[in-house]
Amino acid sequence: MTHISVDPARFLADLHALRRFGGDGASKGVRRRAFSPEDLAARDWLGEQMAAAGLEPHFDPAGNLFGLAPGRSLLLGSHSDTQPEGGWLDGALGVVAALEIARAARESGGPPISVVSFQDEEGRFGALTGSSVWSGKLPLEAADGLVASDGLSFAAARAQLGARVRDFVDPARFSAFLEMHIEQGPVLDLAGEAIGVVTGIVGLRQVQVTIKGQQNHAGTTPMAHRRDAFSVAASIATALPDRFANIVTPQSVWTIGQIALHPGAASVVPGRASFSLQWRDIESDRLDRMEAAIMALLDDLAASSGCEITATRLRHDLSPMPMDAGLQAILSQAADTVAPGRWRKMPSGALHDASNLAALMPVGMVFVPSIGGISHAFEEDTQEADLVTGLAVLADAAARIG
Ligand code: HGY
Ligand code: MN
Ligand code: MN
Hints:
Elements: H1 8-19, H2 37-52, E1 56-59, E2 65-68, E3 73-79, H3 92-107, E4 113-118, H4 129-134, H5 140-144, H6 154-159, E5 174-182, H7 187-191, E6 195-201, E7 203-212, E8 216-217, H8 229-244, E9 253-255, E10 259-262, E11 268-269, E12 272-281, H9 284-305, E13 308-313, E14 321-322, H10 325-338, E15 343-348, H11 354-357, E16 363-368, H12 384-401
The structure holds (2S)-amino(hydroxy)ethanoic acid (HGY) and manganese (II) ion (2 copies).
One manganese (II) ion binds near residues 79 and 91.
């Protein structure tokens, strides 16, 4: 096993350099939505770093950026696009760690390692869009029809790639995929541990609920005569915990993250409400039972409120995905070597591109702690010592895989 001697200072310098593309300025936070000018500039910068590391930069038609080692290689990476108000590490950590390990492996005469930054993991257009297209789960033509909330289509967005675009990389080039990521939750931080070896990634379902009531005057319409679309939306949100009580576990989650009221005026009873409802769990059948409870609740409220309620499935289903047992074992050995007594095995409550790649090759993931468990917010952060520990674990595992 060739030891891959990484350079922590170089790794951290690259992480901070990447943060400046779309950097918020007042915090470490980043705004770097898929195919935004900041995202394209960041990808071009990453391509330059890949070339300087002796890798062949390669954009595919979906905007995924690979740094290819010659021949067959281990693939490391993540994504470099962010949420509208993203953290500086979500995705970026895995891409920059992959770059450092690929560079260090080449310097140490170690195994060939390729790097990838998948596009639109954060779902400006779809869900894990770039890796869904690359893995064959989502045809490029279907992705092209996806439209962001500002009206930009995936087709128009990716057209900005211009002459950068080449063909899709053959997944057979890669022996396995490893992704380092921040935990984005509180478990490791609360336990004072440094490393999480991921056992599996949750599945996700999402619907867009639309409620049609009666737009009316906020002053002259008696409460008993209203068909207030927001009031029904609020009833759905408050009723879900009871409806889920005998179904969910403490790890099950559901979120109403985006809501729009029409016409959205203080003196008008909203006639229409539309909101996203997303739920996640590590078990498929529990996702099914949560879905059945949601649909029953919508039927009950439509009958009792006199409003018309529809639910449109927004995203193609993302099934729960176990991580490869062999890679879990290798990552556990690496964690035990680098951070003995300070690591655990754990599931991922966040989605990751690794879910899509599991259909193509063995995949494994490793987590580092998130301070306060905060993510998808400008406050997202991790102690630099923990970032370096994660890098060492990933490098050790990459060397063991060879
Ligand atoms: O939503 C997720 O789990 C991912 O961070 N995009
Ligand atoms: Mn992520
Ligand atoms: Mn994210």
